[in-house]
Design goal:
This protein is an alpha/beta fold. The protein has a single domain, classed as 3-Layer(aba) Sandwich (Alkaline Phosphatase, subunit A), CATH 3.40.720.10. 27% of the residues lie in helices and 17% in strands. The strands form five sheets. Strands 2, 3, 7, 8, 9, 10, 11, 12 and 13 form a nine-stranded mixed β-sheet that branches. A four-stranded antiparallel β-sheet has the order 15-16-17-18, with helices on one face. It has a three-stranded antiparallel β-sheet with strand order 4-19-20, with no helix packed on it. It is globular. The N terminus is likely disordered.
Length: 538
């Protein structure tokens, strides 16, 4: 099959619109000599170039903390690194680049929407987790009313209220000859909206992806959330795994088997493939994966900690199985693997994890739902043979939306039109070992005008900015500002706002400017009926 690359010509009306409303007809250009050359000419040359483009795997783990691995993303190992066995993460890190300061959003849906759209969470306004159409998931707060956010998620059509319209990079991959596979958790759009189905975003194969952000159970003995007659007894029952019901196959393993079947089929297509391997692990419920649970009990871990560790190692085995498949099928050299978590590890509930609250991501502070480091810093590894040096560490601050332009660059897709503004930055220069000054000086922002259904330090009704070594957190209801020098205080133990008023002012102005520029939302004070002040308002 001859691969054809087309740049869509604008009509006169579209051309006028592109000048008048540039974000609606934005053309993104990622200039690389290789990529530009790949689409010159036609016929056999194009076909040969198509075959040479890399396969891409994004392996994303749900609720995995920065320390939930035997791979130390800090300069030293911690007790949590010693607790878990993740030999395949170690294997991947030895073959690729570890990003030690990679960030996501504090909860799942915003992260996944940012990944799919390249938009910052403040811009797409999916700022809390989504599930049911038109139902906001905010917990009650007697003094503050959360913002009217996009609770229906994202979609590629503008047909549903409370939805952000955007074209996914997956659609662009598909349109340019990639075979696209989704396996596991989706969680981009609410039930009964177009965005609930991964196929809406350009995936040709969808294995279990729905609107649900969690799962009823990992256990096949409980049919992954279905009754014996096949009916789901919860909105988050895992569909499509009937072949494994009652077999003793843990959900993580069942998903892996299905992903490998999809790859077996994909290799016959003679197309490059994109696999989004999105595990439900290590999200609650913390069911015991009996393949690994007894080992951790023997080590002296409590049942809760052993169950959690078993979920972590089950995820790691899945990674290893996929890497083994690539090697067995001679695909390893031409396949990029991107590993990341979607938010910080759960630390606000003693129902599922042992130890004092908010300490499960130490040395980081707090956990999932929080704008402290424990809620937003995630593991991140990229393996890319012949491009990324093996076993290196990168301390640049990166954000999940950076994957959008990065993956398209990897796929040699240099020209594309999308209806949204792309906030992410291309990481390819950094992956190639080049110093990217723009990346070094960029400011990363978060906006949470919501009340998440957990509580604890740094959780809910705030916004934040990270630039260089400095990080500012602003609390909407109180106006309180916290300033931390992250490189010397990774645990955010010392608020140095009082000692650095100029830096507080500088970051407050930049944060306010960026949020307004993205048309971000603010919560409202119930007693006044007015929005909370921006961080740069006196």
């Amino acid at each position: 099959m001859i691969f054809q690359f087309c740049i869509t010509k604008l009509t006169r009306k579209q051309a006028w619109a592109s000048r008048t409303y540039p974000t609606l007809f934005m053309t993104n250009k990622l200039f690389t000599t290789m990529a530009a050359a790949s689409f010159l000419g036609c016929g056999t040359a194009c076909a040969q170039q198509k075959d040479s483009r890399p396969n891409i795997i994004v392996f994303i783990v749900d609720d995995m903390g920065w320390q939930d691995t035997s791979v130390p993303f800090w300069y030293q190992k911690t007790r949590y690194n010693e607790m878990y066995d993740t030999p395949n993460m170690e294997r991947l890190a030895s073959q690729g680049m570890m990003f030690t300061q990679a960030y996501a959003c504090p909860v799942s849906s915003p992260t996944r929407c940012s990944l799919m759209t390249g938009m910052n969470m403040a811009r797409h306004r999916v700022t809390n987790w989504t599930l049911q159409r038109d139902v906001m998931t905010d917990a009650r707060n007697d003094s503050v009313k959360p913002a009217d956010w996009n609770c229906n998620g994202i979609a590629q059509v503008s047909m549903v209220a409370h939805t952000t319209t955007a074209k996914s990079f997956v659609q662009l991959l598909k349109d340019n000859g990639y075979h696209t596979i989704h396996c596991g958790k989706a969680h981009w759009g609410a039930i009964d909206t177009p965005g609930e189905d991964p196929c809406h975003f350009g995936f040709e194969v969808n294995i279990t992806g729905t609107a649900a952000g969690g799962l009823a159970t990992y256990l096949s003995e409980l049919n992954y959330g279905h009754t014996k007659d096949g009916k789901p007894y919860a909105l988050n029952a895992i569909p499509g795994l009937q072949a494994y019901w009652g077999t003793g196959t843990f959900a993580t393993e069942a998903l892996t088997k299905e992903a490998l079947k999809a790859l077996d089929k994909a290799k016959r297509y003679k197309q490059p493939f994109y696999l989004y391997m999105s595990h439900y692990a290590v999200h609650i419920p913390i069911d015991k994966d009996m393949r690994f649970f007894p080992k951790y009990v023997r080590r002296g871990l409590s049942d809760k900690d052993a169950a959690y560790a078993s979920l972590v190692e089950g995820m790691d085995k899945s990674l290893g199985d996929i890497m083994d498949w690539l090697e067995k099928n001679n695909k390893a050299d031409n396949t990029i693997i991107i590993f990341l978590g979607d938010n910080g590890g759960l630390a606000s509930s003693q129902q599922w994890r042992d130890g004092p609250l908010y300490t499960q991501n130490a040395p980081l502070k707090s956990g999932k739902g929080s704008l402290y480091e424990g809620g937003i810093r995630v593991p991140f590894i990229v393996k890319w043979n012949d491009v990324v040096k093996a076993g290196v560490r990168n301390d640049a601050s990166i954000m999940v939306e950076d994957l959008y332009p990065t993956i398209l660059h990897m796929a040699q897709i240099t020209h594309y039109q999308v209806p949204q503004t792309i906030d992410g930055m291309d990481l390819v220069p950094s992956l190639q070992g080049r110093t990217d000054k723009a990346l070094q000086h960029r400011a990363i922002v978060w906006n949470v005008p919501n009340v998440w259904d957990g509580s604890g330090p740094g959780i809910s009704l705030n916004c934040a900015i990270r630039q260089g070594d400095w990080k500012l957190i602003y609390d909407y209801p109180t106006g309180r500002k916290e300033l931390y020098h992250i490189s010397s205080d990774i645990g955010e133990k010392e608020n140095v706002a009082g000692q650095n008023p100029q830096k507080v002012k500088e970051l407050s102005v930049l944060l306010g400017k960026k949020l307004r520029g993205m048309n971000a939302q603010r919560p409202m004070l119930i007693r006044t009926g007015k929005p909370c002040k921006w961080p740069d308002e006196e």
